[in-house]
């Protein structure tokens, strides 16, 4: 699919020798970048490689210390994002800028609503023009619907539609598929293709390599604020791309798989678990030392299974045994006390206590352990956090540092420290590498391997098939609240998982 | 970033201390009587009411809530205590724990409703406060009841030069400070305020923490009610009214984050001193009470905008 771009055209955007310095950090170091009209240009790099800074420089949100920006053939120096927008640059950030209580059309035309001759908003014109724009994107969506009532994927379309109100020459998409299901992502790709055919220059940022191969023509890779290379996507393979980003080979990304002992008793045994509406009927066993996967599309009920097991979602039915003893209707407290830890999907809302320091975040499930009766043993607590920091080689200056200031990867490792410290029997890891750069991913994979080697049963929930396939010796696949099948050993592949995730097992 | 340092001083504590020192210096310069031990001890005595109420408010704000019923609880406590004791003076002694239990019970109801209904605490406590105020005013429109003379000792008594009420307040603050900093349950307050869902999924019983916070708040607020009964000898159906909003000022100026999870009751105590000293100084300067409101308002605006800007810089 890639490689639709043919021939030489002048760059729509050309950056030369861009340097941007923040106190103490050279975020961009003399970077050249060029993207053309009618091209999907992927921008790749680990977190902190300088992608965001580059995008913000293009958008005029940052003013570089050195270097020149040429846009559409003219040398420009933006002094505000408003200027670049007027010139035809539109950036869609990961966090949407939408007003949930306004309609789709009102959001699309926010700030530039069509007027009647009396100067009031012409809703008729607004709705029909909104429909036209959505048609151009190939997306059917009621312009009168309230944004809070539509899906994330539709909200993304509204963001893109906003760009098409004026003339857009350059569209930047920052991790647009992070929250989308496979099907929704496909719709997004179609829409991106249409815009490309219209001659729009598209800069596409994503952590998901498979997407780059699907839709991008060229790719620019940044590493540590410097340009690591520019390539035609069609002349690259995944391994080479990863190597450019992380500076190591893909075979080094996943640690070797280890099969758990054959005749051990399961650490967790689940029979006919129900927690409607998301969990309808789930049964499986998890063994000590095993890294099993729980796959399925977003909405299939994977996280709900985890919550129902952990006791943070009420079960209506089902028999669960933990280490051979009955484990019915527990509270999270009871789960933790019995050695069952749960690394949640949303580390900011459900994992970390962002206002508190690192040590407190590490010891949170076990604070009673540090209570001396009349007070807290801070020294022991700080030592415990320090031990985890060393054990997982977390790059933080002190256990008393603010957890909110750490990178995503380090925050995640702090949570690994928390759970592996408190719970030795089993761990459920829900999206363990979400929003984490490739380098930190590799380290997290090693941690997972290590914890399994120490005897914990581990259930990995992930939307990234590459990750499930790379880590798990056995994968349970969910569809609409039920386990639709299981693949083991060599049968674990992206294709076999996707088949079970999408097609009815009976068909 | 405070890398590697073992102890970190909360910047808001520094700011409120600086303000406090500024007021003291201004007081010493502007008024001869302000700086006397006698006056400062009087301030400590008078600060007790605001202190009790703000201490309660601090706990609720720390877990991410807010209590707008505190004024009504102060009022209801005074009326309940004075009315019951007037009917039967033998009840004076049991009514001391009795009125505290009453406050704690109202607090518990607040917490229960917040958890059960999922309605924002602002609205829940506005509601309970309004109901309570209405009940009191149905019962009496005038100051009512009476207590034995000896109960005055709580508000006016002195141990050496030190006022009993001020001492009780300091002990309460000290106790809560220790509780928050050095006990597992106290730690849970910060965890719940800093991320209720995260805390819950870390095995912390968030509901219990929230219930305890509101209950303790009611307890300390009723203590302020008992203080007023001791001070005036009667139950006054309007005495609590100004405290609802006044209780929030020291909490915010003392650096407790509205929304919870961050701050320290030491800051709230310094905030109480700050407000009390300013009011005392302005009294000596013989200015209108309304000027006191203006000054309080300005302090909130200045202090909080300084905190916010510091956060941004970091």
Reconstruct the topology from this structure:
The complex is a heterodimer of chains A (507) and B (314).
Chain A: E1 11-22, E2 25-36, E3 40-44, H1 51-59, E4 66-71, E5 74-76, H2 81-87, E6 89-92, H3 104-108, H4 123-136, H5 152-163, E7 170-174, H6 182-197, E8 201-205, H7 209-215, E9 218-223, E10 226-232, H8 238-246, E11 268-275, E12 279-286, E13 291-295, H9 302-310, E14 317-322, E15 325-326, H10 332-337, E16 340-343, H11 347-351, H12 358-363, H13 378-391, H14 408-422, E17 426-430, H15 438-453, E18 457-461, H16 465-471, E19 474-479, E20 482-488, H17 494-502
Parallel strand pairs in A: 3-8, 3-9, 6-7, 7-8, 13-18, 13-19, 16-17, 17-18
Antiparallel strand pairs in A: 1-2, 1-4, 4-5, 9-10, 11-12, 11-14, 14-15, 19-20
Helix pairs in contact in A: 13-14, 14-15
Chain B: H1 11-30, H2 37-62, H3 70-87, H4 92-117, H5 121-139, H6 153-156, E1 158-159, E2 162-163, H7 164-182, H8 184-194, H9 196-201, H10 206-232, H11 243-246, H12 248-253, H13 265-284, H14 289-313
Antiparallel strand pairs in B: 1-2
Structural features, described:
The complex is a heterodimer of chains A (507) and B (314). Chain A has 17 helices and 20 strands. With 507 residues, chain A is α/β, with parallel strands linked by helices. Chain A has three domains: 13-248, P-loop containing nucleotide triphosphate hydrolases (Rossmann fold, 3-Layer(aba) Sandwich); 249-339 and 423-507, P-loop containing nucleotide triphosphate hydrolases (Rossmann fold, 3-Layer(aba) Sandwich), CATH 3.40.50.300; 352-422, no CATH class. In chain A, the strands form four sheets. A six-stranded mixed sheet of chain A has the order 6-7-8-3-9-10, sandwiched between helices. Chain A has a six-stranded mixed sheet with strand order 16-17-18-13-19-20, sandwiched between helices. In chain A, strand 4 (66-71) and strand 5 (74-76) form a beta hairpin. Chain A starts with 10 loop residues before the first strand and ends in a 5-residue tail after the last helix. Chain B is mainly α and 314 residues long. Chain B has one domain (37-247, 255-263). Chain B has a two-stranded antiparallel sheet with strand order 1-2. In chain B, a hairpin with a 2-residue loop joins strand 1 and strand 2 (162-163). In chain B, helix 1 runs antiparallel to helix 14, helix 4 packs antiparallel against helix 5 and helix 13 runs antiparallel to helix 14 (289-313). Chain A binds chain B through residues 310, 312, 331-333, 335-337, 342, 344, 349-356, 360, 364-365, 367-368, 370-371, 374-376, 397-398, 400-402, 405, 418, and chain B through 1-6, 8, 178, 181-184, 186-188, 190-191, 193-195, 197-205, 257, 261-262.
